[in-house]
Amino acid sequence: MKSSRELDIDIKLIDKVDALNLSVNAMKCLKIMLANEEIQASQEYANTVSIVRLGYNDHGPVHMRTVTYNSVLMLELLKKAGIKTSLEQDGCGDYEDSLIAVMIASMFHDLGMGMGRQNHELHSTILALPLIDKILEQLYQDNIRKRVMIRATALEGIAGHMGTINISSIEAGIIQIADGCDMTKGRARIPIALASSHRLGHIHQYSANSIEGVTIQAGKEKPIRIDVNMSNEVGLFQVEEVLLHKIAQSTATQFIELYAKVRDDEPKKYL
């Protein structure tokens, strides 16, 4: 059964995609993923391994839904700024095709945590592939070309979300940044409560626990502005070692403004 937090994000996602006024495929894709029991079970198991076995932050249904929402929001901001996605620039697809690839990659990017932390981004592609094929067959029954290119774009987004491999599409770059933006204290609440001794993932937990909020909105100088609000300086680990690293590795770096501040201090501009 889904938690109340998952259900809340489901509603936000459906409302956000509905407001984009696209064809039926984007909403159909989202609703398939939100209702699929195998996807839900895979996300929940990834979270069990991450939190209970390894002592890391949330890498489960709430996190993957949050990254999906962040990705949809950022892709929308790029569109409003007149920035075309890579599929659009290449003449391979339209904005909605890119959105579908990004939503799929975001919802599946951490499934590999069910196999452990090391190389989990690559393991995620293995676990996600049959799920992706089932979804795309329902969306593009008579268009194998679109199935192939959306599948490849989604897999690039999954494999590249940690910034450990070179990526080439804007779609994959957006997923990197959207993943890094989910670092608020809610991600660390459960693992901190369960912890009885210091473990490998604790620096991520305690730094994330100091992040009060992350806001994504239109920037003044660039299409996307990210603001990180912290309760104390330990949150700088998340900003400088996680988020900033992912932005620096991303193909969407040039579209991002990044600010961070501690409570009522003046915000520090990183990008």
Entry summary:
With 271 residues, the protein is α+β, with helices and mostly antiparallel strands. The chain is built from 12 helices and 4 strands; from the N terminus they run αααααααααααββαββ. It has one domain (4-269).
From the structure above, extract its key features:
271 residues; alpha+beta; 4-stranded mixed sheet; 12 helices; 4 strands
What order do the SSEs take from the amino end to the carboxyl end, as H and E? HHHHHHHHHHHEEHEE
Would you tell me the overall average pLDDT? 91
Q: Cα distance, first to last residue?
A: 41 Å
Please, how many helices? 12
Beta-strand residue fraction: 5-15%
- Weakly predicted, low-confidence segments: 188-194
Q: In what order do the strands lie side by side in the largest sheet?
A: 1-2-3-4
Q: Give the number of domains.
A: 1
Q: What does the radius of gyration come to?
A: 18 Å
Helix percentage: 55-70%
Number of strands: 4
Main beta-sheet annotation: 4 strands, mixed
